[in-house]
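Example is below:
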Amino acid sequence: MLGLLAVSLSIVLFASEWVLAALILKDRAVSPINLPDLADISKLTLFAQYSTAAYCKDVLNTQETLPLGYQTKVRCKSGNCPLVEAAEALIIVGFDRLEDAGVAWDSSKSVDVGGFVAVDKTNHNMIVSFRGTSNTEDLMDDAKIIQKPWKCDGCWAHQGFAQFWEAASVIVKSAISAYQDDFPNYPIVVTGHSLGGAIATLAAMELRDMFSSTSVYLYNYGAPEAGNQALADFVTKQGGNFRVTHFDDPVPRLPGTSLYAHTTPEYWISSKNFVPVTAADIKYMPNGGGDAGFYTTDFDAHHWYFGHVDVC
């Protein structure tokens, strides 16, 4: 709780921007994406490892926005994020099970959303990473199909995923705002695996509006659908989306009703589990449909995205 209070000054300074961001978002033109550069296997692997780091308690427990020169490096005890550990990747703030988040549905409840904001001074990115499903409470939220109106015309978001982002958004926006002047040319990369990937979708959508002069890219892995077709179309039109699925991973097919849809394109890993992923294994699916073409389910496929993505 004390760590969260440390960002209160930044929250006051940027409150007016957050109010504006809560209004209906506008379509935002983006520069053409150079797919070979942004979707090459090294970047897909790097940001998968940032998703892995969000499962690490030591990373999430840095619950205080730190000044330059006092951050700690992002590390994974399991050794599952070597590209991240090799970089000068410094934690700005972490968060885990936010309390008194002031979320609209019931501010008396704690919200089991985990993640962190970091600056990668080697690869020149601001990173926002969200943890995936970590307990039965998260699983219950994943299974909900209830929707709520979201921030674009005709858009509806998964209620549980929206609640997670609403709880974390104040901390995330404050941390980015506090560091943008120091790293003005760094794009923002929002990433996450599983549940974290769905939260990342809603986060990227809103951060693109708030930080409109900055490129905001979305890399998510094994993510369920975050909202309805209008929401998926809106995020797709924003551009800069890299939705990665793996073989017959069942989670991207959830919630599994016609009320939900995915962003496009899809980057489908066609290789099996527990083997290195090569560039030839990644299939670019401009209209999606790679993972959705399977009727089998293999949860091991959900855990293997360029490595064991959910173990720390």
